[in-house]
Amino acid sequence: MSDGWTPPVDPGGEPPAQGGGYGGGYGGGYGGPQGSPPGWEPPSVPGMPPGQPLAAPPGAPPAWAQQQWGQQNAPWGAPASKPGVIPLRPLAVGEVLDGAFTVMRHYPKVTLGLAAIVVTISNLIQVAWVASAFLGDSVDIDVTVFATGTAVGVIATAISNQILAGLLTSVMGEAVLGREATMGGTWRKVRPRFWALLGAGLIGGVVPFLALVLLAIPGIFLWGAFALVTPALILERAGVTEAVRRSWRLAVPDWWRVWGIRALGFIVSFVLAFIIAYPGQMVAGLVADGGGENAGAIALLVLFLSQVIARTVTAPFDAGVVSLLYIDRRMRAEGLDVTLAQAAAAEAGRF
Fold first, then answer.
1. How many helices (H) and strands (E) does the chain have?
2. Distance CA 45, CA 53 (A)
3. pLDDT band at 284 (very low <50, low <70, confident <90, very high)
4. Distance in angstroms (rounded) separating the CA atoms of residues 127 and 280
5. Contact of 46 with 37, CB cutoff 8 Å
6. Whole-angstrom Cα distance, residue 167 to residue 149?
7. Above 50 in pLDDT, residue 303?
8. Integer Cα distance of 240 and 45 in angstroms
9. CA–CA separation, 234 vs 229, rounded Å?
10. Which of 202, 248, 316, 317 meets the CB 3.0–4.6 Å disulfide criterion with 111?
11. Is the pTM of this model over 0.85?
C-alpha cells in the first residue's frame, strides 16, 4: 500500500528517535514538520531557550502549548483531521476500544462477513474431528481421535485467527482513511501476503504462547512485543522478519501501554463472547440432558452455532484493537498522523 503506511526508514534501518511526543525530533520528541531537513529546529523567541516551541500568541488558551507538530491540530484547539473512523492524532485508551467497535458499525458487511466465513470454516474442521470421537457407535471415546481432533482444532484456530486478523487489518487501513472496503477487494489485497501472514502468525502467536507455557515472564513480554506483527506485515507490506522487527521497535519502547491496552481488549472480547455464547451453551446442555436419539448431534450443532456467532462478533474487535494500537504507536513515534492526513487531503483533492 502506498497511502502513508511505508515506514520512514529503509527495512533494517533504525527508526526515528523515540521521545515522549508525537514524532521524534527536538526537545522531548515533538518532531519537525513533514519534510524538514536534518537538524531542523523550531523558531524561537527572545528570552526562550533554543530548541523550544514558539510561545503562545497573546490571548491563546492554555491548551495551545500542548499542540504538537505531529498532530493535525491547528493552534487554539482546532480538532484533529478525521477522514475516517478515528481522529488523526495519538489515541487515548477509550478511543482505541471505541474505534474498534466503530469500524464494525461502519463496515458491518465486510467485517462480520469475513469473520463469519473464516470462523465457520475453522469451526467446521474442529467439529468434524470431535464428532468422530463423540458420535460413534461405541460408548467409549476414542482417545487418539479426540487428542488428534484437539490438536487439529488448535492449529485450525491459530491459522484462521491469523488470516482473519490480516483481512481485518486491511479493512482498518481503509477505514482510517475513510475509504470503502469490500470483501472481494480486501481478499485481493491480502492474498499475495497469505504465506507471509501464516509465518508471521507462527512467530507472533505461537512463540509467545510457547514461552508463556514454559516460562511465564518471557511469554508475557513477547505477547506485547510481538503484538503489532500483523499490522506491519499487511499495511507496510513488510516481510515476516521485518514485520517482527517493526513490531519490536514500535511496541517495546511503550511496552506497558501496548500490553495493557491489548490485555484490556482481550478481556472485553472474552466477556462479550461469553455473553453471546452462554445462551447456546445452556440450550445445548438442556438438549443433552434430555436424551433422545439425536440429542448429542443437536447439542453439538447448537454449541457450534453459538461459538461461530460469538467469534464472528468478537474477532473484528480483536483485530481492530491491535490495528489501532499499531497506528497509535506510529503516530506517537513517527508522526504517521501527518502522513495519513496528507494522503487523505490529496485524495479528497482529486474529487
1. 12, 0
2. 9
3. confident
4. 16
5. no
6. 26
7. yes
8. 48
9. 9
10. 316
11. no
Residue 91: φ, ψ to 5°:
-100, 145
Angle between helices 183-190 and 143-176 (to 10 degrees): 100
Q: What cell does 285 get? A: 446442555
CA distance 50 to 296: 76
Asked whether residue 42 carries a pLDDT value surpassing 90, the answer given is: no
- Angle between the 108-134 and 93-106 helix axes, to the nearest 10 degrees? 90
Residues 6+ apart with CB under 8 A from 95: 86, 87, 324
Amino acid at 257: R
Q: Please enumerate in sequence order all residues whose Cβ is within 8 A of that of 327, keeping only pairs 6 or more positions apart, or say none.
A: 86, 91, 172, 176, 231, 336
pLDDT mean across residues, the chain? 74
> What pLDDT digit, counting tens, does each position of 133-181 carry?
555 544 455 566 556 666 666 667 777 788 888 899 999 989 988 888 8
DSSP letter for each residue of 138-185? SSS--HHHHHHHHHHHHHHHHHHHHHHHHHHHHHHHHHHTT----HHH
Instruction: Look at the block and give the residue holding cell 499487511.
Output: 234
Which range in 78-92, 140-154, 288-302 is most confidently predicted, on average pLDDT?
A: 78-92
Closest CA to 234 of 196, 204, 206, 177: 196
Burial of 35 per CB tally in 10 Å (0-12, 13-18, 19+): exposed
**Average pLDDT value for residue range 27-32:** 37
CA 210 – CA 203 distance, rounded (Å): 10
Q: CA-to-CA distance for 69 and 2, rounded, in angstroms?
A: 23
CB 60 within 8 A of CB 48: no
Of the candidates 347, 342, 349, 338, the one whose C-alpha atom is nearest the C-alpha of residue 30 is 338
